[in-house]
Design brief:
By secondary structure, this protein is an alpha+beta fold. Helices cover 50% and strands 20% of the residues.
């Protein structure tokens, strides 16, 4: 859980950092683009002014404006003073005619190309000429009156307009504040005063790439910064995981001592108590059996000390021995029975023939001991019963451990083998959720599988599947 939280926090932090870096880089790009200056700007402005001296917009543009406005000025004044609705219609018609004439008769292409040629400028340069506003003035007391404003125009199609006005001529596709080299408002006098506003944009293709190239050092520094931060976080995570693993190993050791040492110690204490009874002391065979039990459990404790120091590496300390499965189970059951109080019962029905397999006695005992512990510990019936038997099914010997306990809920059945997982919240039942985790480890060591049949309120049956190919020798049945 902590590992997932750590990963989530690191990922969120990295995403935030990445977004901040990208935002800062983008802002730097915008500023660099805003400051981008066309080197030829001054030359073009100077020569453009000379090329249209005594004229407007381009050569011949002044005559077009004069011819259209001079004819319509009296009508515009009369309509403005008498009928505002008629004035608006007339304004649209006059401004529409004027701008269409300016588009149709534009000589700006030749003007611009002559400037480029005359000044020896980059021949890939493109321009765009836009028209923003037409104002007329009948009376100084009334002031300037708009008859055309590109921001509120509905006469021309969208493809003919830009945010900077109506397109008169030119092919520059992306006019911006940065590549606007001239924004002019020119006044004139006919029968009445007028003023027109227009802009000229000039730029070379690939402007964005040029700005991006200028930003290349910044891009590289940002990328290097991100790589360093990712590297530091990765190194920190690996170090944290290594320390966590070492801590888990130590924790496993301490937990295993508490969990695994409890059973043999309890068995020895019970056997010792029995040896103190007169009835047992008078029966030499029972004394001998109890002594053997104490000896076996003491040896198991000794094995715990030697082999449980590194629980996480238990699979590196395997000592396989040829053992009869019936004998291994029977020995453990007889040892375990001493803890089973009446009327509870633990029984084993041996297989009808010898089953020789290679097992690690300590690991096998740990596995079976933990399953039996669970079968009694989580059984709240007045009479607790656990039975063990062996069957042969589909080329597998199956060791069944079946109890009449409370069963396992379907929702948690797949989680019971997880480390520290406890299905119930009953604080009266001792345990750390390690028993079935060790069972799974022990099965993996031997290459066996386990399945569960369970029904809530009726009991649980663990089925340990032992491939018949692992047996040293078996009789055909």
């Amino acid at each position: 859980m902590k590992d997932r939280i750590y990963k989530t926090v690191v990922l969120i932090s990295f995403v935030i950092l990445l977004l901040v870096q990208l935002r800062l880089t983008y802002n730097s790009y915008v500023l660099r683009d805003r400051d981008y200056s066309l080197k030829e700007k001054a030359l073009i402005i100077d020569d453009y002014g000379k090329s249209i001296a005594e004229d407007k917009i381009y050569k011949g543009g002044g005559k077009i404006i004069d011819s259209v406005l001079s004819i319509n000025m009296p009508q515009l004044k009369a309509a403005y003073l008498t009928d505002k609705g008629e004035f608006e219609k007339l304004s649209n018609r006059v401004s529409g005619s004027l701008l269409k004439e300016l588009q149709k008769k534009s000589s700006m292409d030749s003007v611009f190309r002559s400037i480029v040629k005359r000044k020896g400028l980059d021949t890939t340069l493109k321009y765009l000429l836009t028209f923003q506003q037409i104002e007329i003035n009948f009376d100084t007391k009334i002031g300037n009156i708009n008859i055309f404003d590109s921001r509120h125009d509905n006469l021309f199609k969208a493809r003919q307009k830009t945010p900077f006005g109506l397109i008169i001529s030119g092919t520059l596709a992306d006019p911006t504040v940065q590549n606007c080299i001239a924004n002019l408002s020119i006044s004139g006098k006919l029968v009445y005063d007028f003023r027109i506003t227009y802009s000229l944009f000039v730029d070379a293709p690939g402007r964005n790439l040029k700005v991006a190239y200028q930003m290349l050092p910044t891009f590289l520094l940002v990328a290097l910064c991100i790589i360093i931060i990712v590297g530091i976080n990765y190194y920190t995570y690996i170090s944290w995981m290594r320390q966590k693993k070492e801590t888990d190993v130590k924790s496993d050791f301490l937990n295993s001592i508490k969990h695994e040492f409890n059973t043999p110690i309890t068995t020895i204490l019970v056997a010792s108590k029995s040896l103190d009874e007169d009835e047992v002391l008078n029966d030499r065979n029972r004394v001998k059996a109890l002594v053997h039990i104490v000896d076996r459990q003491a040896r198991r404790l000794h094995s715990h000390i030697n082999q449980m120091l590194e629980v996480s590496e238990i699979n590196k300390n395997i000592n396989l021995e040829e053992t009869d499965l019936n004998y291994a189970v029977l020995t453990l059951v007889n040892d375990y029975k001493i803890k089973v109080e009446q009327p509870n019962s633990l029984t084993f029905d041996p297989y009808h023939s010898e089953i020789l397999i290679m097992i690690d006695p300590f690991v096998f005992t740990t596995m079976l001991q933990n399953i039996l512990d669970n079968s009694f510990k989580h059984n709240h019936n007045d009479v607790k019963m656990t039975v063990l038997f062996i069957t042969l099914q589909n080329d597998n010997y199956i060791l069944h451990i079946k109890d009449n306990g409370k069963g396992i809920e379907e929702a948690v059945k797949d989680k019971i083998f997880d480390k520290f997982f406890r299905a119930g919240k009953d604080k009266t039942i001792a345990g750390l959720g390690l028993g079935l985790y060790y069972v799974k480890q022990c099965l993996a060591i031997h290459g066996w599988d386990i399945s569960i049949k369970t029904e809530v309120g009726k009991g649980t049956e663990f089925l340990v599947h032992i491939p018949i190919g692992q047996t040293v020798g078996h009789t055909n049945h």
